[in-house]
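As described in the Methods, two query proteins were run sequentially through the folding procedure within a single session, without resetting any intermediate state between them. The first query and its resulting structure tokens are shown here.
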Amino acid sequence: MTEPLNVLGIAGSLRRASVNRGLLRAAVAEAPPSVRLSVFDLAPIPLYNGDVEAEGDPPSVAQLKRRILSSDALLLATPEYNRGMTGVMKNALDWASRPPEQALAGKPVAIVGATPGGFGTRASQFQARQILGNPGACVLPKPEVWVSNANDKFDEHGGLTDQATRGSLVDLLLALEAFARRLL
């Protein structure tokens, strides 16, 4: 049997009970045996600053880049704030795209997102696709998973309770696996 695909999940929210962190927890629980999914916490990542970078990546940034480089693919769970991606996610992508590692170059990426609103993070996912194109990440075109009305699909701790959304996560992980294996 082929080794499991090593996927790194990153949520663009820092709240413990975030529905986007909940999406990643559900993806870990629902991942098929052919996919090994781990999650990276962005809380320790400082704001990007070229002066700091010139002195060398902070340890948390170096760890982020190592984790991305050692993964076969990424699963980004991006919230939507004011019709855009969060500063937390954008900041992480900025750090990860920087030389010399350029950890996002050629990396297969799937994007998912949840929001209490009715549009299911479409705008933030669109922005993520635009941003990921510049460092040369390979973004999975389909399926697109936009979780609308998240208050009805998650409990008060950010746990996913909706079975249809769980099924969509499995479909997304299987599509990411097939996509990444073609690229690797």
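Immediately afterward, the second query was submitted; its sequence and tokens are:
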Amino acid sequence: MLELGNLNNNNTVVIVAGPTASGKSALAIDLALRYGGEIVNADSMQVYAGTSIISAAPSEEEKKMVPHYLYEIYPPSKNGTVVEWLKLAVAQIKEIWAKGKLPVVVGGTGLYIDNLINGTTPIPEPSADVREQVKKIDKIYAWLQENDAKAAQMLNAADKTRVRRAAEIFLQTGKSIAEWYKEPMVKYLPEADFKVIKILPPAKDLDERCYARFDKMIEQGALEEVRSLLDLRLPENLPVMKMLGVPELAMFLLGESSFEEAVALAKLHTRQYAKRQRTWFRNKLNAEYILDKICI
């Protein structure tokens, strides 16, 4: 059982981070119950409504054990950003402090956690008009090469999300994203004393856990969730349509693969994603506590 010692609930934030299927939610609930805490989501997929099974969000029973925040707060049609999440998370953490409780931030999205702890580049969010302008550009990378060569040089043409964002930032501010990255980082919660826990189980154990959890998702109704998403006819580039398991199960539901093929592919992609997460957290996130086994 992990012991954190005496904590100051006026400014302490506990971070529970690690790859998918490593048992973060179970550990977060245990810590929240023992230290008078409330849980804040830091998973970029668990923010979308109607995906509680396929995104492995906490169950209703778990939510009754301890307050949970920032789960399923967006409609599936939304494309959430790290800045939006940061503002919501900071406000929620301050509310938890105001109640004399301990914020326990839990998730596997390294970008969210890194930005919360270390700050983010002060890049203004593009307006809706600017986003519409960029959508109308036929070849965005070529446009970027012509209008913002510095950004084009630092980006891979195949990374459509980052290329599109670079174009949006240039149109919004008249300044290259390459220049924005040189600006000092802005901390949204400079007063916080972060206590970071990362879970890094052996790869073999993590693989087995990923496979078993996906089977359980199927039993719980993941196919029905994906069918409901397909019924919404959402664009394929939205985060919710790229969520682990969604593209693969969608292929089956659309008659483009067998059920067995879809499940095998989803498990493979989940394992590969968990491996990348594990590598990122091992190398990039500093932590006071490192756990070397799955938390159940």
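The chain is about 50% helix and 10% strand. We note this only descriptively and draw no conclusion about the first query from it.
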